[in-house]
Design a protein that fits this description.
The complex is a heterodimer of chains A (198) and B (562). With 198 residues, chain A is mostly helical. Chain A is built from 6 helices and no strands. By secondary structure, chain B is an all-alpha fold. Chain B has a single domain, classed as Cytochrome C Oxidase, Chain A (Up-down Bundle), CATH 1.20.210.10. Chain B is 64% helix and 0% strand. In chain B, helix 2 packs parallel to helix 4 and helix 13 runs antiparallel to helix 14. The radius of gyration of chain B is 24 Å and the shape is globular. Classes of the chains: A mainly alpha (198), B mainly alpha (562). Chains A and B meet through helix 1, helix 2 and helix 5 of A and helix 6, helix 7 and helix 8 of B.
């Protein structure tokens, strides 16, 4: 609807405004994480021992399971967006709402597990002040956590807009939300590998 | 589309989503911040020339205040004057009108961007009034001065959060959020909302340059935000990212800062070069020479701009092999800019040049920037930089780049587009007086400082009477000349203020296209209505068709079919 109108008076759109804007935002986000990761790698390379002696070890197994949870939410989001891309019903009809609910649920589960692991680690004495190991852990994983949290809120916003039918172009909303969510999911395995495994 | 309908005062001027109002708001706040930045410069320049004397309108300047003032002068002039005026101000005013559309892609986000920016300015100024005062460790905020409470004692979280250091970091972070929103808007608007027929190679140069500047900004600000995040944690939570005694690394901040900080120079330079690209063809009545090549050169400079940052760190303890790499990169990046300037000169060649006020500022920019650019080549080579580092040579160098860039670039744009966007004709005589006074006093302020720097004067010293060996004659006289000229430079801006208010109150109504320019903004009403165009224009040709043989006038606007 919006696209047709613009085609008459404007050059053809590359993709919807929301999607193009989101891609530029995520390019910036990518550089933000690149900054954190390179600081981490440089610091780790210069450290005497990594992880430092006397500091708790990170919960590799639980977080591994949690990684699967987050990846699953990425898959459900992908399926939801793909379903609606193929959807030839009228512009405001959204299908596969169960997949959307499932995505939110999996995202919230990921956050809950991360939160409980953080509480344990703080209890074991890994804090932002205890070592550079702790400082980088909480900063990088925390920065990612904030992005997941923002993602869950965005998903809620999307759900409300779709169920009440108040967004002018729900397909653009779904696409841009999906791109954001898949970005947050996709950088997680990299962070998991760099911070927990290596 | 809601064309030019009645709105309340608040929704029209304060919380407007109209890109033109937002552009003017950005420029207004930028100019107000320039007044503060200029006042700080006046105070510390006065102190340098007449140390220990009472400063008129201020009083005694304490050594710590001197540090605070130079720090905030730099911060304000780069981030709260250059960025809002050149990038956000011009971008908002020009992009939608020049690509031929009604507004930005996300008007609400645009309004939010301006208010977050204003908030950031308030946070920055508020830092002057917290206990301990504003941050004074230099605008680059190097740790350890900026970390762990060296500049401010921070016993608990709340005090730490409201310390001068933390507030400055927060202000920068907020400003980046605002600029990011603006940048996304610029790019999406240019990509998705161009008028029919506005193909990529018909987009005016300034729109290209504003977009390239936005891309550079967005690509480079991520690592700095990451660094600022870590620095803030160092200050308020007590992590040790930049504390060498706890396994951190202060040099790391310098890398994260300059990875952004150097591209930032081009973020400020490209919009002003774009202004030149619009003004020079109009007042030479010639098509812009090598339009496509200029854009390719700008893209090349964008790529190069992210691999030159460590030339700011030649004395920080850098591997000599790496220093060579960054030296070479720095010298290479002057090639695209030399190309761009050469293309502007070629545009002038054989043209029928009209010395209007915007044209004078544009040509003044070229002449002055030449001095800044050439001294930059010296500083780029690390052997010389180690000698000149942190001296007045560096100060004079970057003022010769940034002052023409920010102020001459802005004034050129102001005198050129003011009649269009505010609908009144500016006084030409006052404009010319403004140009000559600014040019003369700018040169007499900064040119002599090159010699002071070469002689060994360091820029962070507030009172040279303690350093007789570098403060002898004629250098102490040079300091006084620079200070008196700086005061005259600031005072001569009153001519600009006078012209502005005189025109706003009693200026003649401007014509629709007073300069006979060919780009789309001159097709709109003067001033453009909310929504810009009565009917969306269609574009048939490039932006610089001047002196066309057999044409009715000597130019053909972009929206005219054959």
């Amino acid at each position: 609807m919006e696209l047709e109108f613009s085609a008459r008076v404007h050059e053809k759109k590359v993709a919807s405004d929301g999607v193009v804007g989101m891609i530029f935002l995520l390019a910036t986000e990518m550089m933000f994480f690149a900054g954190l990761i390179s600081a981490y790698i440089v610091n780790k390379a210069g450290a005497m021992a990594w992880p430092p002696p006397g500091q708790p070890r990170l919960p590799i197994a639980v977080t591994g399971v949690n990684t699967v949870v987050l990846l699953a939410s990425g898959v459900t989001m992908w399926m939801f967006a793909a379903k609606n891309k193929r959807n030839t019903l009228s512009d405001n009809k959204v299908i596969g709402k169960n997949l959307m609910m499932l995505t939110v649920l999996l995202g919230a589960t990921f956050l809950a597990i991360q939160g409980s692991e953080w509480a344990k680690m703080l209890h074991f004495g890994l804090t932002t002040k205890s070592s550079m190991y702790g400082a980088f852990f909480y900063t990088i994983i925390g920065a990612h956590g904030i992005h997941v949290l923002a993602g869950v809120f965005t998903l809620f916003y999307m759900m409300r807009k779709i169920t009440t039918g108040t967004h002018p172009s729900p397909k653009s909303l779904i696409d841009s939300t999906a791109i954001y969510w898949i970005f947050v999911v996709a950088i997680w395995p990299c962070l998991y590998y760099l911070v927990y495994l290596s | 589309m809601e064309h030019g309908h009645k709105q309340s005062f608040a929704s029209k001027y304060l919380f407007s989503t109209d890109h033109k109002v937002i552009g003017i708001q950005y420029i207004t706040v930028g100019l107000l911040m320039a007044v503060i930045g200029g006042f700080l410069a006046y105070v510390f320049r006065y102190n340098l020339a007449f140390p220990g004397k009472d400063i008129p309108l201020f009083g005694q300047l304490l050594p710590q205040q001197y540090n605070t003032f130079i720090t905030n002068h730099g911060m304000i002039m780069v981030f709260w004057v250059g960025m809002p005026i050149l990038l956000s101000g011009l971008g908002n005013l020009l992009i939608p009108t020049m690509v031929g559309t009604d507004d930005m892609a996300f008007p609400f986000l645009n309004m939010l961007s301006f208010w977050i920016f204003t908030l950031s300015a308030i946070v920055l100024i508020a830092a002057f009034f917290v206990p301990g005062g504003a941050f004074g460790g230099g605008w680059t905020m190097y740790p350890p001065l900026s970390a762990g409470g060296y500049m401010n004692t921070s016993p608990d979280l709340l005090t730490a959060l409201f310390s001068g250091t933390s507030l400055m970091i927060l202000a920068v972070a907020l400003e980046f959020v605002a600029m990011l929103m603006g940048g996304i808007n610029f790019l999406v608007t240019t990509i998705n909302k161009r008028a029919k027929g506005m193909t990529p190679w018909r987009i005016p140069l300034i729109v290209w340059f504003l977009d390239i500047a936005s891309v550079i900004f967005m690509f480079s600000c991520g690592p700095l935000v990451a660094g600022a995040f870590m620095l803030l944690l160092d200050n308020i939570v007590g992590t040790g990212f930049f504390d060498a005694s706890r396994g951190g690394d202060p040099i790391l901040w310098q890398h994260l800062f300059w990875f952004f900080g150097h591209p930032e120079v081009y973020v400020l330079l490209l919009p002003a070069l774009g202004v030149l690209g619009e003004i020079i063809p109009v007042f030479s009545r010639k098509p812009l020479f090598a339009y496509k090549t200029i854009i390719y050169l700008a893209l090349a400079s964008a790529v190069l701009s992210v691999v030159v940052w460590a030339h700011h760190q030649f004395v920080s303890g850098i591997d000599p092999r790496m220093a060579t790499f960054f030296s070479v990169g720095t010298i290479i990046i002057s090639i695209p800019f030399a190309g761009i300037f050469l293309a502007f000169m070629a545009t002038l060649w054989g043209g029928s040049i009209k010395f209007t006020v915007p044209m004078m500022f544009a040509l003044g920019f070229v002449a002055l920037f030449l001095v800044g650019g050439l001294t930059g080549l010296f500083l780029g080579s690390n052997a010389f930089d180690i000698y000149a580092h942190d001296s007045y040579f560096v100060v004079a160098h970057f003022h010769y780049t940034l002052f023409p860039d920010i102020f001459f670039g802005f004034f050129a744009a102001f005198y050129f587009w003011f009649p269009k966007y505010l609908g009144k004709e500016l006084n030409v005589t006052l404009g010319k007086i403004h140009f000559w006074l600014t040019t003369i006093f700018f040169n007499s302020t900064f040119f002599l400082l090159f010699f002071n720097g070469l002689h060994g004067q360091h820029r962070r010293i507030n009172d040279y009477s303690f350093f007789g060996n570098v403060a002898m004659e004629p250098y102490s006289t040079f300091e006084k000349v620079a200070t008196i000229s700086a005061i005259c430079l600031i005072l001569s801006q009153l001519v600009f203020v006078l012209n502005l208010f005189k025109t706003l109150s009693s200026g003649k109504k401007a014509a629709k296209n007073p300069w006979n320019a060919a780009t789309l903004e001159w097709v709109t009403d003067t001033p453009p209505i909310h929504g810009n165009f009565e009917t969306f224009p269609e574009v048939y040709r490039g932006p610089y068709e001047y002196s066309v043989p057999d044409a009715k006038d000597d130019f053909i606007p972009q929206n005219v079919a054959n």
